[in-house]
Each structure stands twice: as C-alpha cells, then as structure tokens.
Amino acid sequence: MSKSSRSSCLSCGGRLSPEDKVCGSCGAKNVAPDEPAEAWIGRVIDGKYEIDRVLGVGGMGMVFAARRTLVGDEVALKVLYPRLLESRLQRDLFRDEAIASARLSHRNVVTVFDTGFSEETGAAYIAMELLRGKTLKVLLREQAPAAPSILVPIAIQVCKGLSAAHRAQIIHRDLKPDNIFLEEIAGGEYRVKLVDFGISAMLDVDRSGERRQRLGTLRYMSPEQCRGRSVDARADLYALGVVLYEGLTRRRVTGKSVTAVCNEVPQIPNVLLPTDGQLPRALEDLLMRMLAKEPDERPDSAMAVSEALRLTLNAEAPSLEAPPKRRRLSPASSQPSSWLGWRFAVGVGVIVGTLWGLLR
C-alpha cells in the first residue's frame, strides 16, 4: 500500500490505512475524510439512485442530481457527509429533516420522495423533487433593492409554505434567500419552494440539548435564537422580515455579531431609500413589527403576515411632498368658529332674557 493512501485519525491524528476499522492509538472509529463531491459522480446509492452531477455543496452535505434506476426520472439527492454520522446532533438533525420534510405536503415546500441509509457508502440520504429555477439569493444579487411588486408576492408564498410547516409543528429555523427557491412559471412569475429543513425544530419533539447550540445563519437568526432560547413560529417571521428588509433596501438589518442582532434597532427603510423608491407606509410598519426584538411584539402567525402583505400591494406609496404645517390649537380654540359664535349668541340671549324677567 502506498504511503499516499494512508490517512489521519480525526480524533488523535494518528496514521491510519483505509482497512483500519479503529485507530490503533486512541481506539476511535476510522471515519474517512470527506471526498470531493465530484468523486461521487457515477456512484449508485442504495441500489436506487445513480448520481449524475453536483448541484451544490453545504456545511452538512452535498446535493446531487441523480437518476432513479427503477423509474428513470431525475431527482435531487441530498447526502450527509459520512463523517457527520459520528455526531449524534448531526444524526438527529438529519433525521429531523427527513421527518419534517415527509410531514409536509404543500405546493410551496419541496416534495420529499424517499430517505434512507446506504450501508455500502455509509451515507444517509434524502431524495426529493428536482427543482429548476434559481434561489432568491440569485434574484436579489441581480435586482436588489427590488420593488415591492416583485418581493411581496414571493413573500406571500413563503408565508403559505411556513404556515403549512407551522401547522405541522415544524419551525424552519434557517429561512434565508438561499433556502427560498423560485421556479419560473408562465408570465414571468415565480412559484416559491421552501427547501433545506436541515436544522428545523419540531415542537413536538424534545430537543432540549440543542438549545445551547446556536443553530442557523446569524444574519437571519432571531434574537431569541441567538441567545439559545426555545423558538416558535415567530422566529421564522423574524427571518422573513430580514429577507424582505435586505431585498427592499440592499442593507443589512444589524451588524455582524450576536450582540448586534440582539440589541441593534434597524433603521426605518424609507430613511435609507431614495424619494422615488419609498415603500408604502403599511409595508414599512409591517417590516418593523416583524423585526421586533421580542417575539410578543411580532405578528403572531405566517397567515397574518400573508394577509398584511396582500393589503400592502394595494396601498399607495407615501406622498413625496411634506404635508403643510398646521397651527397647534389649544382645547379652547380647537372648535370651529361657527360653533363658537353660536354658543356666544345663546349666552347673550340667556342673559338678556334673565334681565328682562327681573325688570318686569
């Protein structure tokens, strides 16, 4: 065996050969280092999925386009890095993603067909529908700051997908432009698909051990998520607020630290935007409520946000002209002059009538 074929133990750094089941120095299981995603092309996973090409690579695994050997159609195959199977947290998260995805059946959530573990390759996998289009991240890179007429319809569909997840007791916990997929349909419109429930939280499963873990992407994490507290549906609404704010203004909501996320109050959008790109006041107010630091100050459901967004589509943009200044009136002078004149006439009449009665 050549020296180049040997590897190092991930626990102690000792030298290992591929045939070693455990490390001779520390006894740890020999876990092969991650192979490049391209090395998986051509492999058949679990006898069912032949990997054709790489679609993406993330922190937890790889996503491939694969052909179902029995049916012949294409699917997207998400494969967890084999080394991560040694982590109980990663195994739990991957299992939860599979369960969460299987629970959901909604036009705005990616459809999962199958999940399993391949003994041959030592890889856990999730097979799902192969989407064609682009992510919201790509759209915003091209168009931000985008007009409300583009982003609000997308956000409404995101709300519908989130509402289906929340009804199934699932919190996405990693909502961001990368995980909002846009399928282009007739007329240049988009059908939204929420993807990657890799760190989703299921409210009916006890994961108290995770609360010390900051799971998520800091830029889109809610303050309570950053503090390691338990989360509910309002954490996803905060993340959607961040997505909308950034898409409409091309500015970050807060700084790049946990302290900033927890404490910095975002600037009002119309302060940042030019006069010819101002947001409707109703949309601006909704955004600021979604970005409230305390969950109780945010809208209480995705459907409530969806309805509020729908109403903003019909709202007019704020006037670009400053309203005329009005003289501040005291309580006594705030009544119309005609009303004051009538009261004066009645008073005079009462006095005259009283004096006439006394003289008689």
Defining traits:
360 residues, 13 strands, Transferase(Phosphotransferase), domain 1, Phosphorylase Kinase, domain 1, 10 helices, single chain, disordered N terminus
Brief overview, please?
With 360 residues, the chain is an alpha+beta fold. It contains ten helices and 13 strands.
Query: So, CATH architecture of the largest domain?
Result: Orthogonal Bundle
Secondary-structure content class: alpha+beta
Give the H and E element order: EEEEEEHEEEHHEEEEHHHHHHH
Radius of gyration (Å): 30 Å
Q: What does the average pLDDT come to?
A: 81
Description:
The protein is α+β, with helices and mostly antiparallel strands and 360 residues long. It has two domains: 31-128, Phosphorylase Kinase, domain 1 (2-Layer Sandwich), CATH 3.30.200; 134-313, Transferase(Phosphotransferase) domain 1 (Transferase(Phosphotransferase), domain 1, Orthogonal Bundle). 33% of the residues lie in helices and 16% in strands. The protein is built from ten helices and 13 strands. It has helices at residues 88-103, 136-143, 148-167, 223-226, 233-249, 258-263, 269-272, 281-290, 302-313, 337-359; strands at 7-8, 15-16, 44-45, 49-57, 61-68, 74-80, 112-118, 123-128, 134-135, 170-171, 180-184, 190-194, 201-202. The chain has a six-stranded antiparallel sheet, with helices on one face. β11 (180-184) and β12 (190-194) form a beta hairpin. α3 (148-167) runs antiparallel to α5, α3 (148-167) runs antiparallel to α9 (302-313) and α8 runs antiparallel to α9 (302-313). The longest helix is centred in the C-terminal third of the chain and has 23 residues, at 337-359.
